[in-house]
């Protein structure tokens, strides 16, 4: 599934990072616990999280993830946006809940 | 300086290309501050000050009806009419740009009209963002910089150069970071920086990933549990060695600390998505060799070694 398709499925908007609409995403993971992300997310995955702290972006960069989605319409902190711009990591915000976001992406064929 | 002139020209051409390629929505600001016609000029003044901006679009419902800027506020101030409504003082002739237009169109519009901001509309006429004159070029330069970094990294990887080629056999590269205790805001910066450097050297990306995840967990431990310490990553042609050393307080029961889920992290850490008792386990599972020694009152030393894959740059992404 392309990053652009994910954006549409989640009615999300990109708030920082490189525009990469054609980037192919095969897997996703959802967590607020960053150690879980580091322990289990495979490289190239999409991260869905409610943690809008810069750590979410740093963890995603370290784990070589493809992009990050903040759920529940949470506004990222300024430092988070800066961290995303520095690493180029595409950052999205959706108004949907974590549950609803995962459900939609799963239904659209994305797996964890 | 002929060569330099040529370089600048190349960069300009690239910038132009990029401004044609990027769409307005990719360079605009999405966090939209707007007012309604009912606002007073005094309220507008406060809003502009608070957000440090020089003008805002005026919306009635979802429809764009005007723009009010710092110049309008200044004029109202001079005339002693700060209580006047925005709808009586705004500019009604608004120059806009569509979100799906190439960014270069916005640049042209700024050049031709001298306006200080362009509201961005979708094709349904709804305001979806705003552009200021520096946005398109500033953003294009950032994208250019990122792409350059990526290309540079690819070049290294394609050349298949190892660290031996860079440093000579027997030499190693050491990255050393001071980590402050409780510096949660800066947490992870050292590891992210290390990943960038090691990645640029063209080392096996899977190994770099494992080494820097281990470094990150070690860095978090220094921040959460100690008064600070030192984090080092040493890259040799065959491995990356991660070491975190602190001067206390030390771990009472190392066996217990290694149990998944065992945590002594304070609550403030847990609220930020950490302290789940997985840090040392993550380091262990990332590492090919792992050592920990600790003495209460003296400090802790954690050492993790990640082997670079034998085939050089062959990816071992899934550990």
TrEMBL record, chain A:
The protein's name: DRTGG domain-containing protein
From TrEMBL, chain B:
Presence of the UniProt keyword Repeat in the record: yes
Gene3D superfamilies tied to this protein: CBS-domain, Histidine kinase-like ATPase, C-terminal domain
Keywords recorded for this protein, A-Z: CBS domain, Repeat
Pfam families with a match to the protein in the record: CBS, HATPase_c_2
Stretches assigned to the CBS domain: 28-86, 90-146
Keyword Cytoplasm: no
InterPro entries, sorted: CBS_dom, CBS_dom_sf, CBS_domain-containing, HATPase_C_sf, HATPase_dom
Domain of life of the source: Bacteria
Protein name, UniProt field: CBS domain-containing protein
